[in-house]
Amino acid sequence: MMSKKLSFQEIILTLQNFWSEQGANLMQGYDNEVGAGTMSPYTFLRANGPEPWHAAYVQPSRRPADGRYGENPNRLFQHHQFQVVMKPSPKNIQQLYLDSLAALGINALEHDIRFVEDNWENPSMGAAGIGWEVWLDGMEVTQFTYFQQVGGIEVDSVTSEITYGLERLASYIQEVESVYDLEWGNGVLYGDIFTEPEYEHSKFAFEKIDTDVFLNLFDTYEAQAIKLLDLGLVHPAYDFILKSSHTFNLLDASGAVSVTERAGYLHRVRTMARKVARTFINERAKFGFPLLKDADLRDKYLGENGKYTEVAGGDK
Amino acid sequence: MANYLLEIGLEEMPAHLVSAAATQLETRMTDFLSENRLAFETMTQFSTPRRLAVLVKGLADASAAIDEEVKGPSAKIAKDAEGNWSKAIQGFSRGQGVTPDDLVLQGDYYYANKHIAGIATADILTSVGRDVISKMQFSTYMKWANNNFLFVRPIQWIVSLLDAQVVSFDLLDVTADKITYGHRFLFDGQIMLDDALDYAPRLNEAFVVADAAARKAQIEAQIAKIAKDNNWTIYLLPSLLEEVTNLVEYPTAFVGEFDAKYLDVPEEVLVTSMREHQRYFEVRDLSGQLQPNFISVRNGNAVHIDNVAKGNQKVLVARLEDAEFFWKEDQKLKIADLVEKLKKVTFHEKIGSVHAHMHRVKTIAKKIRQAANLSADYDTKLERAADIYKFDLLTGMVGEFDELQGVMGEKYALLAGENAQVATSIREHYLPTSADGALPETEMGAVLAMADKLDTILAFFTVGLIPSGSNDPYALRRATAGILRIIESQNWDIALPSLISELYTLDVDGFTYAKQDEVMQFINGRVAKMLEGVARYDLIEAVLATGSLDVTYLTETAKALDDKVSDADFKTSVENLARVVNLASKLTTTPSVTEATLENEFEKALFTAEQKLVLTGTSAEKLTALFSLSDLITAFFDNTMVMIDDEALKHNRLSLLADIAAKAGQLADFRRILTK
Question: Is-contact A246 A34, C-beta < 8 A?
């Protein structure tokens, strides 16, 4: 069995230490509602363009449709992902991941660890990747992806993304049946902290949401995002795209969006995602891709006149 | 003679691609050696999720040298008036790398004899990276790091070993060497291969069974032992066995268990959970009763296997818990409510809701029943089935296990007190789900299945979503083949073209079909596709020209024709009938033979025989009967002018031929058969 049972926060600390030592910058979870760690600008935006980027962070992720009033031991309105992005993907990225499991006290010889094909796709963000779900004794504990396309653009430099489902991993490590029985730290249980918000968020999303307000909010956020994109203000624009996306997710969970309308909303989010990805690269190019230290690559992407040329990119 | 090992080490490939990729590598390597004139005795392939390899045994030390004789200019233009070699000869010699004096005169032409020396095998093999590995093709590709190179998964290492000698080459950032790796967890560090032949044994020591067939056999043997020890029967679903084989490098089968209370959940749900979601084999006792156990295969050895089993049990139970929850919750739902909600579920955004699709299907089902002359006994039940048959799409179980659509519909319908025939039709309407998949067994199920497919095809064509090339996202080709197979299996005497024409006159809730010609052309294309390979191409064309869409009948007739091709009288019979049809086509009015107007004995004899000719029985019997007219037709044509000025006589003769042509037309268009 596990050599020691780490608390939820010790799991986070262990992963942070591990990935920091591998050269990842520890970012903080993004202060905006997102559906997954991938949606954070520290992944979605940074996966675009030729600049290297190594980061790790815990991202609280909201999935309104998965809300169960705090009653289902495995499904949550809000859960935590530990997100690692390494770009360009290191040659030994799989081994690094396995080493991180070892750091958590998971001895590969006592378990069955597999990489089972699972190509990740987020159509609403125009993102797709090739990769695996990682099975630990038959349970998916991680999604491991090499991004191939983000915001509808084929990537210049491939980001490897590792997304640990922290609650799942912790349930495994602490050997509990219900997520609410997890020890967060210092004897405080996950349920002590999250049962009430789970109930309240579910109650709100499924019963008390004023859908007219949120239908209007979607339009408002979308209009703001488009206006800001036209001004080249990538980051505030992206915030409003995230707000649109979350607003849609809330409406979808509440049943306010019909199947036909659903496609329309997803299309609107996708259109913004494509535009923001392009705008981001262009704005970074204006700064001269400062994170790109490799002189040859700088020349390749910026050219002699210092202007960005889409070498490997192009619309797919 | 030497042995050569090539191994490509990769990050885990998708299980379903492993075997095909190994075979592709073997084929490409074989082609590469043959193009380079390198002889070898045998080639063996190896594959695991993390490696593809080939071992070539008895490889020649160098490529075969060849002597080539190249034809040059003719003797007439070899020399100029002064007897010097002409420009043509000089040019030719230069091109061949010889001097004019080396040329040999044979007959009227000069020839250059060239010798191309063999090349050392090791030198040729340095091209393997470029000419074999980087040319491999996959259904999915990826790129990684900053490379633009596309491959199925990132390449981690390459072994290229000729006996004990490394034949090195570079591919991206990898340099081919003699270093390989064992099992990811059970073996630490690198393996230095001393000789190409050491590959399989050294990997075996490092907990990698590189021979996929051997690995599969190990899994089978381990499971057989478990079955024997427990008195179980375990069905090794071939596709699952293949997948499991390609998910592990070192297999160890183990048993897990779950609470027997979950056996109350329908068996299909349990089996789907185990097979599709967890890649487990389900377990039955000797009487076939599902047991609360499963068999899984670990990628590793038996150490701490209890721990692995426990983890797997926990995962399965979480799934079964969900399934049990859905099973109970779904039964609280009302079919009527679910059907109402289908108004909000899109069939396709350009077409409309699933509810509207069901409504059209209800009308079509009745038309099919009538067109195929089936009994009206079950009309009420058919209507009921058509009213509700998609309700299970909105159940929790189908939401979670979409492969169980229809299956759950049948179960829930029975529980809700629906008629058994109605329930069965709900399940059967999805059939067949593949080219050779099971067909509906009940007639009512077959009617509903055909109606559902027909509306799907017609509706998608109507809004312009028409399959093209390899692009058939709505599986309309499969639906068409399904319809044809259903008609065949039910033995329905149904005129599909006229049924379809009739459907184009319908207006169901304001929806009307369009693009009838395209649909008919599409269906014809599918029929032709299904007949491929049945008989000679021209014979298929000939039977297809009858306009029938009855695949069974067309197949039978094409085969019957094919059987007669080598008969002595085949050519004459076919040519006679073709001539009859040709002439008959000149008749512009309805055929009507007046017996009194028949003039000579030959036409009288033919008329008598034609009157007696009734085409019944098998296609072969019908053909024999039709061909029996041949001698009379020959005699008729030898002694009778058809296209004469006497209008009455001409009309009578053409009418006689038209009657024969009409009968022949039931079998084939004989003008399309090649008799040369």
Answer: yes
d(CA B390, CA B339): 7
Half-sphere exposure of B496 (CA within 13 A, CB side): 24
B13, B140, B143, B190, best to mutate vs chain A, most A CBs in 10 Å:
B143
Amino acid (1-letter code) at residue B71: K
Q: Enter the pTM of the model.
A: 0.80
| Paired tokens of B286 | 């000797």
Share of chain A above pLDDT 90, in %: 78
Burial tier of B451 (Cβ tally within 10 Å: 0-12, 13-18, 19+): buried
Interchain proximity A158–B49, CB inside 8 Å: no
My answer on whether omega of the bond before B432 falls inside 30° of 0, hence cis, is yes
- Going from the C-alpha of B129 to that of each of B62, B124, B139, B159, B171, the distances in angstroms are 19, 11, 20, 11, 6
Per-residue model confidence as pLDDT tens digits over B241-284:
999 999 999 999 999 999 999 999 999 999 999 998 899 999 99
Amino acid identity of residue A308, one-letter, is Y
The model's pLDDT over B310-321, given as tens digits with 9 standing for 90+, comes to: 999 988 998 898
Segment B395-417 mean pLDDT:
93
Give all strands (DSSP E) within B504-585, no chain letters.
Answer: none
Per-position DSSP letters for B123-177, written without gaps between them: HHHTTHHHHTGGG---SS-B--TT----BSS-EEEEEEEETTEE---EETTEE-B
Query: What's the pLDDT score for residue B442?
Result: 96
What stretch of H or E contains A37? Answer: none
> Closest Cα partner for B583 from B667, B641, B543?
B641
Cα–Cα dist B96/B70, whole Å: 8
Instruction: Measure the CA–CA gap between A214 and A226, rounded to whole angstroms.
Output: 18
pLDDT tens digits along B108-154: 899 998 888 899 999 999 999 999 999 999 988 999 999 999 999 99
What is the rounded distance in angstroms from the CA atom of residue A293 to the CA atom of residue B625?
Answer: 88
On chain A, the residues whose CB falls within 8 A of the CB of B174 are none
Considering only CB atoms, B303 lies closest to which of A109, A136, A259, namely: A109
B192-213 pLDDT, tens digit per residue, is: 999 999 999 999 999 999 999 9
